[in-house]
Design a protein that fits this description.
Structural class: alpha+beta
Largest sheet: 6 strands, antiparallel, barrel
Strand content: 35-45%
Number of domains: 4
Number of helices: 3
Shape: elongated
CATH topology of the largest domain: Elongation Factor Tu (Ef-tu), domain 3
CATH class of the largest domain: Mainly Beta
């Protein structure tokens, strides 16, 4: 009787075990809806995003500094005024200049008087010599004195011209049409002859540039004439620039190198304003491109999911140039293969998928 009960119990346990195994084997695989796009052959250009500062172009920035410690006698324009080439900007009162010119003018007068006397003496000596009264040595001495007097006049006139040139520095004129960007002094102020104590700054707003620093490793990626875009701070249309200067050689010990970019059309941005630029770099043609959204990253490894029937196949790829829209695939994907653009986040290799229609763009 006991053996029959035990046998029955064993049968029930066996049946229960079989039921559990059957339940575990029945699993439902989730099908993930995704959207896909075919990899295509196309052209892609690399870009560099850098920061820079708005500056005036060479020759479009005039900083007025006293030629030596002086007093300001006149400032003809206020900050914000427009000036024309040749307009008087600042007159400095420098007594030493006027005194020097007066001294040199006196030297010219004395030299000219000596020259007149030397000419008269030479004429008299030659006349006496012709009449046999004067000796030849007296004639030679008179000729030598005349030559020395002529040289003295030329020398004194040269020193007077130099003094007048220096004195002219007391009046500063505009060298181009522009705008007074900064005025730091008023008439009557005493100023030093130093860049740290400027009087006026005049710039040409039509000739502005951006000076930017780029990593040394990227210098060779940028060519003179390359286009660049500057986003408008007010949210308007982006300004267009072009690279006008880049260093031909850079010091490997430095981290960055400067480049200059000119605006293609005048842009009302204040000098000294910090800006962010996107500069065109190298371009690759006839390469395999996929949407940038299709690329997933795990550590340093990049991968793309390819539609393989009703499964998602994970492919490790080697990337080239990437931008906001596309990624260049150097290996791992061929043109024409459908790559998953949305729905691949967290997707395992070999997962079941179904292609969904992409949502219309808003």
């Amino acid at each position: 009787m006991i053996s029959r009960s035990l046998a029955a119990l064993l049968v029930l346990v066996s049946i229960a075990g079989c039921s559990r195994e059957a339940t575990e084997e029945v699993t439902s695989e989730t099908v993930v809806p995704v959207t896909a796009e075919a990899a295509a052959v196309g052209t892609i250009r690399a870009t560099l995003t850098v920061t820079g500062t708005v500056t005036a172009a060479p020759g479009a920035d005039l900083l007025v500094i006293a030629p030596e410690p002086a007093r300001i006698a006149e400032i003809a324009h206020a900050e914000g005024d427009r000036v024309r080439r040749g307009d008087v900007l600042v007159r400095f009162e420098i007594p030493s200049y006027a005194a020097d010119v007066a001294t040199k003018r006196g030297e010219v007068t004395r030299a000219e008087a000596r020259l007149q006397n030397a000419r008269a003496a030479q004429t008299r000596a030659h006349d006496l010599f012709d009449r046999g009264i004067a000796a030849r040595k007296e004639v030679e001495d008179a000729d030598r004195e005349l030559a020395d007097a002529q040289a003295g006049v030329a020398e004194s006139e040269a020193t007077l011209a130099a003094a007048q040139t220096s004195a002219a520095r007391a009046t500063v004129r505009a060298t181009f049409d522009g705008v007074v960007a900064k005025r730091t002094h008023n008439p009557g102020d005493s100023v030093e002859a130093a860049a740290g104590d400027p009087v006026l700054r005049v710039v040409d707003p039509k000739r502005l540039e951006v000076t930017a620093s780029i990593p040394v490793a990227d210098v060779q990626r940028i060519a003179t004439g390359a286009a660049a875009q500057l986003a408008s701070p007010s949210g308007g249309a982006a300004a267009t620039l072009k690279v006008v200067s880049r260093p031909a050689a850079v010091d490997a010990n430095t981290a960055t190198a400067p480049i200059r970019l000119a605006f293609t059309v005048p842009t009302p941005i204040p000098i000294g304003a910090p800006v962010q630029l996107t500069i065109d770099a190298e371009e690759h043609r006839d390469v395999v491109l996929v949407p940038a959204a299709a690329v997933t990253h795990e550590g340093e490894e990049a991968a793309v999911f390819v539609v393989n029937g009703e499964k998602a196949e994970r492919r490790v790829v080697m990337l080239g140039i990437t931008n906001e829209e596309h990624a260049e695939i150097r290996s791992g994907i061929k043109a024409g293969e459908a790559v998953i653009v949305t729905g691949q986040a967290g997707l395992p290799d070999g997962a079941a998928i179904t292609l969904a229609k992409p949502e219309p763009a808003q």
